[in-house]
Amino acid sequence: MLRSIYDWTMTLSAKPKAAYALGAVSFAESSVFPIPPDALLVPMVIADRRRAWSLALLCTVTSVLGALLGYLIGAFLFEEVAEPLLAFYGYAGKFADFAETYNAWGAWIVLIAGGLTPIPFKVVTIASGATGLDIGLFVLSSIVARGTRFYIVAALIYRFGPPVRAFIEKRLVMVFTLGVLAVLAGFALIRLAT
After folding, report:
1. Exposed, middle or buried: residue 132 (CB in 10 Å: 0-12, 13-18, 19+)?
2. Neighbours of 186 (CB within 10 A)
3. Exposed end of the chain (fewer CB within 10 Å): N or C?
4. pLDDT at residue number 57
């Protein structure tokens, strides 16, 4: 089954309309969707390395636009939308402590969590709105964080594309398992930190 999903993703990634799916996933992941855009970005760059930079830009722009939606959810719909989302991801009970810390370190949290850790970016965007982080600082931090992340991924795949593809295809189960473990480790780190 994993092989068929991988093959389907690789086939989708080579199609012209795949960029729309990548943009939609990148946008939604920043506010409500649990799957990161890397799941499409990596195979799309592997399929056509010449598009690496435009795909990284697409991910950055749509991710920041999605981050603004997350910010607005936190700012204006906290009780109606954000609290159920935070409860779904297991953060509702610890949000008050997080908000206090967040107010002191907000820009750094956006920069680090948005680009360098497996911490779900949607939690950061909603928290930014809920705690009233300066929106200009939020947008700037989001651009830097998400741009850094997506351009690093694109650059690595651009540089090491064919060997990476061969490695992934030979060790698909191991790569998938490591990816899942990285996401779970991110959730565990958040729980331990709060």
Report:
1. middle
2. 15
3. N
4. 97
Hey, what amino acid is at 144? V
CA nearest to 41, candidates 1, 10, 64: 10
DSSP letters along 65-79, please? HHHHHHHHHHHH-II
Provide the greatest CA pair distance for the chain.
48
Residue with tokens 């779900």: 120
Looking at the structure of the chain, the number of domains it has is: 1
Cβ atoms of 106 and 131 within 8 Å: the answer is yes
Tell me the per-residue pLDDT of 116-168, one tens digit each, with 9 for 90 and over. 666 778 888 988 898 888 899 999 999 998 998 889 888 888 888 767 666 66
Q: Spell 60-88 as b/e; 16+ CB within 10 A means b.
A: bbbbbbbbbbbbbbbbeebeebbbebbee
Find out whether 70 and 122 touch, Cβ atoms under 8 Å.
yes
DSSP conformation class of 33:
-
Q: Which domain holds residue 44?
A: 1-193
- R_g of the chain computed on alpha carbons: 17
Distance of alpha carbon 165 from alpha carbon 150, whole angstroms? 18
Where does the chain have alpha helices with state H? 2-13, 18-29, 38-47, 52-76, 83-88, 95-115, 121-131, 135-170, 172-193
